[in-house]
Structures are given as structure tokens and as C-alpha cells.
Design a protein that fits this description.
Length: 151
């Protein structure tokens, strides 16, 4: 029931925003700021009710679990983690290997690897099934690096 009331409040708030925008267009801006504030209160209150309803559906052991905040990593630390992972894999890594071997999410690993590729630190090879393999020739064994440079 909380969820239904919450969504109704959100809808009411959105309609309120629409009405206030229409009043602005028609130059009837008597209490526009008050209207916007009231509409925002309805939207935020409704969203809070929806969130509360969803939280109530969780098992008790998950309701009060504190949110774990990862420490933000310096860009140098991120690059070091990616390079360490590449070194561990013989100079050739996929996005998934970097994400699995570091604290980075898949999206973060992809962004870092693409940035390193643009900077010229590695080359990108695409396999037949569409997987991207990032090759760090400076981290490959000497014989493999020479063969990669010659091809």
C-alpha cells in the first residue's frame, strides 16, 4: 500500500511541475516558486515512501546492512592495479580479467583500459567472438613481445 501511495504522490508532484511550467508559459507566475517547492516535496516524499516499501520487503538480515563505501582510488593506483593484472597475465588481459583481479568494476576496468590504449600504453586486439584483448608489449615475455611487434 505504501508503494501505491508513494507513486501517487510522485505522479501528483510531476503534474504539479507541469502545471507550474504551464503557468510560466502563460505569464501567470503568481506563486510559481511555492508551486515548484510543493511539487518537489510531493515527488521526494513519494519516492521516500516507495523506497521505504521496497526496504520493508527485504529480509530482516538485509534491511540494516550498512552500505559499504569503497575508498576512492587515485588514478595512479588504478593504473598500477591494471598494469599489475596485465603483468600477472603475461601482458595480455581482457576487461573481465582486470575487473576480477582488481577492485575495479567491469565498467571502470573498461574505461581505464580504453584510456591506456588511447595513450599508447597498449594495443587492442579483437577475437573472433568479439572479446577485446589488451596487449601490453612491455609486460610480455621478451620473445612474445618481439613476435607481437613483428606481426
Amino acid at each position: 500500500m505504501k508503494s501505491v501511495i508513494g507513486w501517487a504522490l510522485v505522479a501528483f508532484g510531476v503534474i504539479g511541475f507541469g502545471v507550474e511550467i504551464d503557468n510560466l508559459r502563460q505569464n501567470k507566475a503568481d506563486h510559481t516558486v511555492t508551486g515548484f517547492i510543493l511539487a518537489a516535496v510531493f515527488v521526494l516524499g513519494g519516492l521516500a515512501l516507495v523506497r521505504s516499501a521496497r526496504r520493508a520487503k527485504l529480509p530482516p538480515e538485509l534491511r540494516d546492512v550498512p552500505v559499504v563505501v569503497r575508498p576512492t582510488l587515485d588514478s595512479r593506483d588504478v593504473e598500477r592495479a591494471v598494469l599489475a593484472c596485465a603483468k600477472q597475465h603475461g601482458g595480455r588481459v581482457t576487461i573481465a580479467e582486470v575487473a576480477a583481479g582488481s577492485q575495479l568494476s567491469f565498467t571502470e576496468a573498461k574505461e581505464v583500459l580504453e584510456g591506456l590504449s588511447r595513450a599508447g600504453a597498449c594495443t587492442v586486439d579483437v577475437t573472433e567472438n568479439g572479446a577485446f584483448i589488451y596487449e601490453f608489449s612491455g609486460l610480455m615475455p621478451r620473445e612474445t613481445a618481439r613476435a607481437a611487434l613483428e606481426s
